Amino acid sequence: MSDSTVIQALRRAFQVAPTLRKGLVVTLLLAGLGTAMSLVVPITLQRIVDTQLVGVDRIDTGAVLRSGLVAVGAVIVASIARWTSLMRIAKFVPAGLAELRNEAFSHLHRLSALHTETNRRGAMVARVTSDVAALEHFMEWAGIGMLIGITQLVLAMTTMLFYNVRLALIVIAGVAVYGTLLLWFQKLLKRAHGAHRNTISDSMSAVSESITGLPIIRAHGAEAETLSRVDQALGRQFVAGFRTARFGAVLFSSAEIFAGLITAAVIGFGVIFGARGQLTTGTLLAFLFLVNLLTEPVQMIVEASDSAQAAGAGLRKVLTVIDEPVDLPDSTDPQPLPAGSLEVAAVDTTFQYPTGPPIIRNLHLRIAPGERVAVVGQTGSGKTTFAKLVARLIDPTAGAIRVGGVDVRDVSFSELRSRVSYVPQQGFLFNTSIIENIRYGRAAATDQEVTDAITDLKLVDWVEGLPDGLSTMAGVRGQNLSAGERQLVALTRAWVANPDLLILDEATSAVDPALELRLRDAIERLAQGRTSITVAHRLSTAEAADRVLVFESGEIVEDGTHAELIELGGVYASLHADWAVATR
Amino acid sequence: MGTVLRQGGAHVGRLIRAHPIAFTIAVFGSTMFVSAIAIAAVVIGNITDDVIIPVLDGGEPYADLLRPAVLLIAGIALYKAVGIIIRRVGASWLQIRSQMDFVSRLIHHQYKLSMPWHHGEDTGDLLAITDNDAGQATFVLGPLPYATGVSLLLIGALVLVTSIDVWLGLVALISFGLVVTTDVGSAWFIFGGFEKLQRMVGDVSAVAHESFDGALTVKAIGAEDLEVERFSRVSNALRDQRTWVSVRAESFRTVSEIIPTLGLIAVIVVGGYRIEAGAITPGEVVTALYLMSLLSFPIRLIGFVTWETTFALASWRRIARIVEADDLIHHGEMDPSGQATGTEVSGENVTFSYPGGVPVLSDLGFHIQPGETVAVVGPTASGKSTMVSLLARLWDPDHGTIQLDGRDLRDFAERGVSSEVTIVPQESFLFNLSVRENITLGQHFSEEEVRAAADLAQATPFVLELPQGFDTVVGEQGATLSGGQAQRIALARSIVRKPRLLILDDATSAIDPSVETAILTGLRDAELPSTVVLVAYRQASITLADRVILVDDGRIIATGTHAHLLATQPVYSDILTAYANV
Ligand SMILES: Nc1ncnc2c1ncn2[C@@H]1O[C@H](COP(=O)(O)OP(=O)(O)OP(=O)(O)O)[C@@H](O)[C@H]1O
Ligand SMILES: Nc1ncnc2c1ncn2[C@@H]1O[C@H](COP(=O)(O)OP(=O)(O)OP(=O)(O)O)[C@@H](O)[C@H]1O
Ligand SMILES: [Mg+2]
Ligand SMILES: [Mg+2]
Fold first, then answer.
1. Burial status of residue A234 (CB atoms within 10 A of its CB: 0-12, 13-18, 19 or more)
2. Mean pLDDT of all residues in B384-392
């Protein structure tokens, strides 16, 4: 999509957002009618001038007035037609743009978390805001303007043909030459606008990071350096923006030169033809008005083509997102998961991030239904990656993950997400109340169910200590809560989802040990009969698990109960020794 | 109505005063342009009277007359084109420059504002202000020089038409007057709706930003549909508001666009009567007509500028909320000491609450000796992070003082505190930069310093395995690293600065016990020239500390050695022995 023409991009946009072209034909016809009627005005004027003002002995003021009224009538009809088309645009274009925006947003969420996480927030926000808005100007004004302009151009030239073929042909030839020049210029313009768009998303990303990272930057005294990075990005945006503007200026002025030359030619040849008696004064004057009428649409077309390139640059960015193949497609022929707690199996699973070496290598594993498994290992050994594979946040590059005996790729996301809960390392809270945050786990959960979950997890005391209980606002990214509290909310959220397979990725790493143990007791009691996979650096979890998996460089190097692995005296035993020293 | 126009005008005035030269150049170009229009009208009128009518109707020879006429017209076109280039280049320079100035000012100012101000702000909305409003607040500068020129033209045209004939002048005056009145009235009428529209743009951006920020969680809990629905809600509200504004705007515009055409017709009719009365010649009517038909497009510009001014005002108000916020961090004059030794840290009667909230810290008093290592221990949400963020002056206490070597933090000059104190926060935050830049944050550190800090943070081994080693870009918020890897880079970032006070807020929570032990012993053996305050739960970290400060429910309930607290404080022993008792 990145090298498509504006027309191709628009056609694709019309598919994605059909409302954009809804009733377009009628809208254009109305706009065309409006334009045609406005042509009546110069014609009437010409007739009045020709027949009633110039070269007559006595002016018939009554006739002048009557012709004037005809012109007024034409103006009113034209305005009504044009107004109706504008009203349609005012309705359909914002609706179509909303469709486009919503589709880009949904698609970004259809892509895997891997995709979204490794993309820049500021740039993604730009895709659903300013890149879409770049199209607004074109669709609301310039696109129609261009079509009206072309219609007006054609009509004016046709009218000229009626008046005088030879003079008209001269004008048409001029238009053709100029039109070719314009087309050639589009390429330059496209490149300039594309470059400008890129600098915009770069500076948006720089801005977004500098705002979110402000506390860190402040704490390290790096304000000046960060600000200068932002200013550099803005500097590049300025240069690119000014460059496109300069192109626009030259282009626009060329329209003026063109109009001037055509006027000169019309007068020159008009007088010559007139002297030979091939042309009346009125016709020549009408030609001059018609040429004047040409200037406006030509300028409009020039302006619109600039706007079209700006729109194209934004649209291409939006379409690149929308046409990005879904890297984690939902199953087309979903298989049901068996009822009850779920078995987990990895069959020769290998995974590799787009950049870098394989992180999970030839993993073979079976976790029985209802088994409580602890996953331990050095940082960077692939524990989180493994957890994400099981939760199908990423797909293996080779091999398969089976849950309840079914390849996870064959399970519909709606079923998988309702049966499998994954609590990530850094729980994310939305800027809403705590209870709404919990309900994100299961939208249908009643207040009672939320309170029950809190009671189950023995968190009642904590909730009562909050300023507004469950209605306390969590703040942007949950900043109104302490890190431990955020994890409590994320845990409760998973809990209300009532999963059959619970995957906790260091979900209690920021909670104080006493509270963590209380939580773990609660979870263990309640997790009876559910499968659970718990990633933890706090090896107390491993001590209590049915089974411990030890990861090292993407492989399971040890597998057994706590006691067995201590006995073995390998990786786990040494980790545990460090842990024991650290805690006791 | 008066207020909107006055404030809008004041806003535009400020923009012009910031770059008067560019504006003057653009207006100059615009004057060239409009004078070309006027000259063209007169020339066409003269050509009609002196060339066309005599030649076509009078059968006179054209030989001598035609060439200058044609050349004159071509020359005027060229002159006009040059005017256009000057005007447009000047105006777009002015607009883009002013927009960039705004964005830069927005960010620079936010960097001066205190944490309480930042607390309630939504990044997505701030992005919309920098992206959308900064543009919208300056777009008026594009057509403004043109409109300024057009105003001159209007006056000139009025004078010209009036000098031809008073009645025609009156027709022109009425028609221009009606256009301006319609535009001003409608702009005022729609202003409120437009302000609302800009707010909604901010809402859309806010939801989008939050949703992408939390993408992993959104997917993990299968909340994509909920998010799409939430986004559609704000997005559709924006759609409806956009339609609301457009319907009104376009209706008014239609009205104001008819007026000049009606004026044109009126000129003809009135002109007919006046010719009949013998007051003017047909050529003069043609001149008047030509002038007015040429103006029918530019006059829309005045309406356009009126509109844009009110739009600009709506956006400026959103920008002003930030750039005119006076919730600044106040710095003193005192320079940092420059000593390379641990600093003494003390707090007296420190009380603190987050904006609008209940007190989080009450009446803290503590005293940490130079070079001492102190552990801050306490249950979840007891106020540990809050306390240590006060030590780094991310927040200021409501009451009481915090001092380094007896110097109040608030007396330090800008960047003074951060040159003596650094904090490794509980949740590491990495930038979309290389590992090295994440450590240096763009400041000057030698390669050896970076390596040494990375070594101490136990980061070197895994960094060297990354595709480009220290030059690997880690993605926003460290997306391409594991939790423990990100934490170690954050740690190196603080260590490299050799602070006099190093604060570790549970900075090894995502790191496995073996590496954690290596880090902690490394830090101890390195004998950093620092006082160290660490928030921790594990005995290993705490035994590194000379002393422990026990925090519960926002108060310091005890200070002392590990052994002492273990023996006397049940809150402390609960936390410390939790694992041992399993
Ligand atoms: N999006 C990504 N792109 C490229 N590499 C990645 C990405 N995410 C993780 N990695 C790499 O994959 C390896 C395993 O990461 P993972 O997060 O699975 O480790 P982990 O065992 O969970 O570590 P920790 O205990 O620190 O959380 C690391 O070396 C990391 O750098
Ligand atoms: N930005 C904030 N706005 C409002 N309240 C906050 C904010 N940050 C923290 N709090 C509240 O202040 C209290 C102390 O939080 P703090 O983060 O200092 O706790 P903590 O001891 O560090 O906890 P943890 O062990 O979970 O990290 C908590 O009750 C929390 O809800
Ligand atoms: Mg991990
Ligand atoms: Mg904390």
1. buried
2. 95
Residues of A in contact with B250 (CB under 8 A): 83, 86-87, 89-90
CATH classification of the domain holding B295: 1.20.1560.10
Distance, in Å, from the CA atom of A278 to the CA atom of A272, rounded to the nearest integer, reads 9
Q: Which residues pair with A407 in a beta bridge?
A: A402
| Interface A-B: count of C-beta contacts within 8 A | 533
B13 has pLDDT over 80:
yes
Q: What is the mean pLDDT of each run of 10 residues along chain A (584 residues)?
A: 77 91 87 76 72 70 82 87 91 94 94 85 89 87 80 84 88 90 87 91 89 90 92 96 92 87 86 81 80 79 87 92 91 91 93 88 92 92 94 93 94 92 88 93 90 91 90 91 93 90 90 87 81 89 90 92 91 87 68
Q: Residue A62's pLDDT is what? A: 81
Domain boundaries, chain A: 6-322, 344-427+500-582
CATH for A6-322, options being 3.30.56.70, 1.10.287.1770, 1.20.1560.10, 3.20.20.70: 1.20.1560.10
| B507 in a structural domain | no
Q: Are residues B70 and B115 in the same domain?
A: yes
**Contact assignment for A118 to B479 by CB distance below 8 Å:** yes
The region, left, alpha or beta by phi > 0 then psi within -120 to 50, assigned to residue A313 is alpha
User: Are both B345 and B260 inside the same structural domain?
Assistant: no
In a domain, B503, yes or no: no
Structural domain count of chain B? 3
- How far apart (Å, rounded) are the C-alpha atoms in residues B524 and B526? 6
B560 has pLDDT over 90: yes
Q: Are residues B312 and B360 in the same domain?
A: no
Residues B241-292 pLDDT 10s: 999 999 999 899 888 888 888 888 888 888 888 888 888 887 788 778 877 7
Distance B383 CA to ligand 2 centre (A): 6
State how far Cα A229 lies from the chain centre.
25
The whole-number pLDDT of residue B581 equals 62
Helix (H, G, I), strand (E, B) or coil at B338: coil
Q: Which residues are near ligand 1 (CB < 6 Å)?
A: A 114, 118, 353, 355-356, 359, 377, 379-385; B 479-485, 510
pLDDT at B459 over 90: yes
Pocket test for ligand 1, best of B427, B462, B485 (most atoms within 8 A of CB): B485
Evaluate whether residue B523 is within a structural domain. Answer: no
Check residue A60 and give its pLDDT.
77
| CATH assignment of A344-427+500-582, among 1.20.1290.10, 1.20.1250.20, 2.30.30.140, 3.40.50.300 | 3.40.50.300
Calculate mean pLDDT across residues B114-124.
87
The complex's ipTM? 0.90
Rounded-to-integer distance, Cα B500 and Cα B423, Å: 11
Question: B217, B495, B538: which to substitute to probe chain A, counting the most A Cβ within 10 Å?
Answer: B217
Q: Is A280 exposed, middle or buried (0-12, 13-18, 19+ CB in 10 A)?
A: middle
Number of neighbours of residue B58 by Cβ within 10 angstroms: 9
Residue B460 belongs to a domain with what CATH number? 3.40.50.300
Residue B115 sits in the same domain as residue B217 = yes
Ligand with the closest atom to the CA of A376: 1
Domain match, B412 and B425 both: no
In a domain, B333, yes or no: no
Nearest CA, atom 7, ligand 1: B480
Considering the entire predicted model, what is its pTM? 0.90
- Ligand 2 pocket check: which of B114, B119, B360 to mutate, most ligand atoms within 8 Å of Cβ? B360
| Chain centre distance of CA B11 | 17
Q: Mark whether B482 and B573 lie in a shared domain.
A: no
Would the pLDDT of B174 be above 80? yes
Pocket flag, ligand 2, residue A482 (CB < 6 Å): yes
Q: Which residues of B touch A427 (CB under 8 A)?
A: 217
CB atoms within 10 A of CB B339: 12
Instruction: Between B244 and B304, name the one with better pLDDT.
Output: B244
**Residue located via tokens 């298989």:** A335
Quick one: B402 and B430 in the same domain?
no
- B195 and B61 in a single domain? The answer is yes
Structural domain containing residue B488: 421-498
